[in-house]
Each structure stands twice: as structure tokens, then as C-alpha cells.
């Protein structure tokens, strides 16, 4: 199947009313995000933190501790309280897997089960002091590494970068609007792909 070249992509964006500078930025950002995603999936920083801090947990177990420690979500539980179902939702995993991982953390002394202060019929899970210490140590490790990297940046660069990154982080909220706005272009891409598959 023929590749969709950068020139073709740029031309498509410009026909859709997106200027050349923005089109160039889109393609460069996409390439950066692809690389970032591959590295993030390997969880390099988190894995290294667990090894160097000599924490006997794997990354999935550590994620459970972070999910237990996480802020109250929007599913109705009282502030500061986390249930096994909350862990499943925060990690986007099956409830049975979340239950198994939480039980492992309880058995190893990183978490404990408790009764909700808001509803005595509801079981919650909280970090023990040991669990809190692990989460705090890994976060501090990450902050040290990132702080060292960003320490070489100019203060003005940081002042611009952080708000822009926060703004960019919401770009996926534009999915619905964007797909509606460019419905014709998206349909044309689908037809082109379909015709290529049938002839190729």
C-alpha cells in the first residue's frame, strides 16, 4: 500500500484551511508523540525508579498504589475514599484484575481495607504508611530527574512551556468538533483507502 507522504499530508491540511506553518507543527508534534508513546509504554522512568529505589514491586503493582492514592474521582465516592471499583476505573482494567492486584498490595502490607466514613456499608482501600512511602519516593525520584533536565532551561522558556503544555494536553477534547468539521475530508480519506485496498 502506498505511503501517505508528508507532502500529501501537508497538501491535505492546507486544502482543509490549515496553514503551512500549522501543518508542519502538526506533523512534527505527531512524530514526537509517537516516539514519546513508545517510550511511555515501556515505562522507562517508572521502571528505573523501582529498580534504583530497590522497591520489590512491578510497574502494574505500583500503578495500583498510585490509583489508591489518587484524588477522589467523579463517580460519587466521598473525597479521599477509594474502592476497588475506583481502582479499576482509574487504571481502565477489569474489576476482577483490580481486585486481585489490590489484594496483592494488601497482602504485602502496602495497602489495607477499611470501612467508609461516609457509608459504613461500603468497603474502601487505603495506603499504609509503607505504601505512601513508596508512592512518595517514586514521585520524588521522577521530580529529581525531570527537575535536573528542566533546570538547564531558561526561566522564560519554562514560563511559556508549562501553560502551553497544559493547553495542548486538552487537544483531544477537540475530537468531536474536528471530526464534524472535516467530515467530508475524512469520508474522502476512507474512500481512498477502500479503493486502494480493493485494487492493491
TrEMBL record:
Pfam families: MarR_2 (PF12802). InterPro entries: HTH_MarR-typ, MarR/SlyA-like, WH-like_DNA-bd_sf, WH_DNA-bd_sf. Residues 19-170 form the HTH marR-type domain. PANTHER family: MARR-FAMILY TRANSCRIPTIONAL REGULATOR, TRANSCRIPTIONAL REGULATOR, MARR FAMILY. This is MarR family winged helix-turn-helix transcriptional regulator. It comes from Devosia albogilva. The lineage of its organism: Bacteria, Pseudomonadati, Pseudomonadota, Alphaproteobacteria, Hyphomicrobiales.
